[in-house]
Structure formats: structure tokens, C-alpha cells
Amino acid sequence: MSEASTDARTGTDIARRTAPLSVVVGAIGLLQNVLVPAIAIGVSGIGGQGRFLLAVGMVVAAVVFGSAGGYLRWRRLTYTIGAADIRVESGILSRSARSVPYERIQDVSLEAKLLPRLLGLVTVKFETGAGGGEDLSLQYLTNAEGDRLRKLVRERRDEEQAAASGDEAVETDTDEPEGEVLYSLPPRRLLTFGLFEFSLAVFAVLGGALQYLDSFAGIEVWDVDLWRDLAEEHGVDWLALDARLKALSAVTGLFTLVLIGMATGVARTFAREWGFTLTRGPRGFRRLRGMFTRTDVVMPAHRVQALVIGTGLVRYRFGWHGLSFVSLAQDAGDASHVVAPFAKMDEIAPIVAAAGFHLPGADTDWHRASRRYLTDSILIDGGLFALAVIPVALFAPPLWALVPLGLAFFGAAAAVLSWRFKRHALDDTQIFARHGLLSPTSKIATRLKLHSVEIAQGPLARWRGYATVHLGLAGGEFAMHGVPLNEARRLRASVLETISATDYSRLDAPLEDGPDQAFSAAQSGFSANLAAT
């Protein structure tokens, strides 16, 4: 066990505060929010001759009041590591207390943005599986305290689970090894990845800056006449330019736009994925990434609910894919944890195997959606445009009727191609689903971890005899559309058979050999029941 968390004299739990440097981080963050408006006021005409004094006053007030408020909040925020839960109390005037039992904590992750990271601070996030604002976090702790707290919570969670299952708690090495490196992103791979992440986000930033310029400097940046007059002052007459020069200017502008988009994509990718490393240790998977905001996430293998293998419109043609784990916890607001953002399939396969899954093989029995579903999709996607041909032909010039007719053709063709690439399969242990024409996405779920199965039919689907099968996952969604009704019922019967034959109390049991053996214990029970039937 880690260091004592109770007072030896009183026997009560010790209430701790976060790092005192949290006050400094909060004050600097508030100063950053005030700095841009202060500069804008200083260079504008607002306030007349006293605008510089007004700008300085805004900065000083932000520092003084931000520091005072931050100090009071820091003094009034405490966290207590109890025997059964972790409690956080906060509030200056109105007090609030939040208590989370250890058994409810799914994951504990560490996050360090640039400024806290420079000061040796981290944010500790406790993922409860509830998502959103229901999760608990502590800002900011020292690196050592964050590591210590994460290890302590893991130990006590295992003790709670062992007590609930009747097993003996196992002493674990808190300084566990890093484990086997399954995937990493070296700089050259990062550069290639960034080239596929084309982004024009820089223009959104420039647009915001121009908005400030428009508001405070009195310059109409979107006034075309202003820029034409400015060009003419420098001896440039756009109307008098040769057609070839105009075309060259347009091509140069387009080429510059592409370069800026690619450079922005590379910069964003380096900032987000720098130092990306995925390791497999005794407790599961550990992922580290980030240049400015460094995150350290641990994902227990037995809590991986499903896999998602996705790609992009262009990168798919070069064989690049991304792998994500669907888990109870969330990753930056997303239900999936990215574990291999840019990899070949032969690099993804070992990670899939380490998570206890397998990729579909050559003998996988794939099924397409119902042909009636295909017919209905063609009529819906292309029929509306086809109906528009009649009024357009009556009230518009003759050639205009070709527009809705062409749209109807492309809508119907897209429905056919989408149907050809939409398929699903079921084997003894897993369910597979694949969809997407230009950038296909595959989902893989193990039958052991499905919580429910639902057959949904709208009026048209009931009449035509097909359905949508929804598979219940604790951390995400899994749906198969247009499944023939008889096959949907067969899928439901197979999944319900798995659910009834699985001992779910063993999935999270902290057995002596590790969490994978707990998963295997539940799986062996299912396999035995399956063999008996």
C-alpha cells in the first residue's frame, strides 16, 4: 500500500490540497484571456488619450483579482483519499462535495498542458464511465503526487473488486515496468501523417484576428474597393493584367492555399501526436502523446468493449488506417481511445490480438443488407430528384431537366455502391460490421461484452421485412442496418445465448495472473456452455 492517508492521532482521513502553483497557473490563464482585448484597446481609438492606461489597468486588474480569486479557490478545495472512495470538496461561499467510490473508477489518466507541464504539474482525471461533466478531475498536482494518486486508486479499486468477488487481493508492484511497445510514431511517420491531415483551421484564426482589426482599428478588411485602391496606389491595375498573368496568379493562390493547408495539418499533428507511444503492460495498455499538452492514459485490456478501424478518403488509397478502442471511459469527449492513429494493417493486427480480439479472416462469412433495403434506398435517395424532373421540365428551359435527372442517377448509384460495401458477419466469439464506400470503417465487438441486443423496425422496414440490429455496448454504439428479419432474429438469439452463458462477475475480477485471465475465465464459461449446446 502507498503512504498512509489517515491521521495516526485521530484516525480520520487526511484532507489534502492541490499544488500551490495552481494559483499561478490560474492567474496566467486569466491574463491570457485579457491580453488580446487589452492590446486591441491600446492600438484602437477607444478611450482616447487614456486608452493605454485603460489597457494596463485591465492587465493589472486581471493579475490582482485573478490571483486573489485563485488563492481563495485553492484554499477551499481539498481532496481526501478515503478507505472506500475519493472525496473532493470545493467552493468559496457555496460548498459542494463530490464522492466517487473506487469501484466506480474505470480509468485514471494524467494530462499536462504546456504551462503546467513547465511547472511540473499535471491534471488527474478519474473516468467513471458516466461521461461528460460526471467525471472527476483534480487541477493541479505535482508529477510525483499524480503518479502516486493514480497507483493508489488502482490498488484500492482492485481491493474493492476482490472483496466484492470474494477473491484474495493481490499485491501489485506500484512501480510496474513500462511493458512491450506495440506502436509508436517516429518523426518521419508523423510528418507523413500530417500531410494527410489537410486543414484550413489557420484561416479561422486569421478571420478572428481580422475581426478584431475591423472592430478596433476601423479598417473594413472585407471591403474589395479598399484593397483595389491600395493595389492601384502601388501601380497594380488588376483589370489591365494579361489573361495569362491572371491565370498564373489564380494558380499561385491555389498552390499557396494547398501549402498552407498541408503545413497546418503537419503542425496540428505534431502538436497532438508528438511522442505517441502505446505499450502493453501487466495492467493493460498505456498511451502517451502530445507536444504541448501531454497525456498519459492507462486502458485496462478487459475494459475494451470494441474496436473501430477507420481511414480517410485519400489515406485509404495508400493503405493507412487508424485503430481505436471503444471503452467505458472517454478520450477528450470521444467514446473511443485512439491507440494507433496512422498505421498499416500488419501493425494493427498485433494490437488487436493484445486486446483479445481478432481481425476477420479469409473464411469470414460476410452478409450484405437485404435487397429490399437496397431497393428502398435507391427509391429514397434517387426518387425525390426524379420527381423533380417533371416540374422542372414544365416550367424551366428544357436542358434544366437534366440537373435533377443527373442528381437522381448519382443518388441511386451511391445507394447501390453503399449497399455493396455495407456488410456484417458473426463468428463464434465476435461480430463484425463494415461500411463506407470511399473511406471504409470496420467495427469489431466481442460477444462476451455485449450487454443487450435490439431489433428496431420503422413502418417501411416492417412492411418490407428487414430491421436495424442495435448491439448494446457500455462505451459506444454498434448498429447493423437493413438486416433481413430472419437473420436479425438469428443474430439476437446468438448474442442472447452468449449473454446468458457469460459469468460477468469474472470479467473484472483481479485474479493472480492478471486481468486477461479474468477475461479468459468468463470466456471459458461461455465456451463450455456453447459446446454443451
TrEMBL record:
Pfam families: bPH_2. Residues 168-179 have a biased composition (Acidic residues). It comes from Erythrobacter fulvus. Residues 74-151, 419-493 form the YdbS-like PH domain. The chain crosses the membrane at residues 21-46, 52-72, 190-213, 247-271, 378-396, 402-421. Keywords: Membrane, Transmembrane, Transmembrane helix. PANTHER family: TRANSMEMBRANE PROTEIN-RELATED, UPF0699 TRANSMEMBRANE PROTEIN YDBS. This is PH domain-containing protein. Residues 159-179 are annotated as: Disordered.
